[in-house]
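User: For my dataset I need records formatted as: sequence, then structure tokens, nothing else. Please produce one.
Assistant:
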Amino acid sequence: MSTVSEISTERFIAKDESTIILRPAQLNDAQDILDSVSSIIKQGAFIQKERVRTLEEEQAFIKKMKENGNMYIVIEVNGIARGIARVIHGDLEMKRHTGLFRTWLHQDAQGKGIGKKVMDIHSHGADNTNCINCV
């Protein structure tokens, strides 16, 4: 099974000419992720979180995602992590071929044509991590 760190980095120019990088999450992305998700939570919709993780919790989550071979991609807009896409595999061996897909984008990253690229990466990541039934 491939791991999240084996998923390649994708670079492209968005509709508004900003530089977008889709790449595996790193521990040093944690603060940007927290800042972006905090803004989304304040809007009060479209995300399944009631509170922002602490920096330590987010770093531990990134580490756990890598250790478990899950896909966790950062969506970097002009050098700042402004969104994520991830697939978390089932915990049981008999469910490792399944995965839960989640993505979100900070308002600064919306309307740039990132969605299609994220879905392409998700499909590629699901294939490379033996995920047959990702929802």
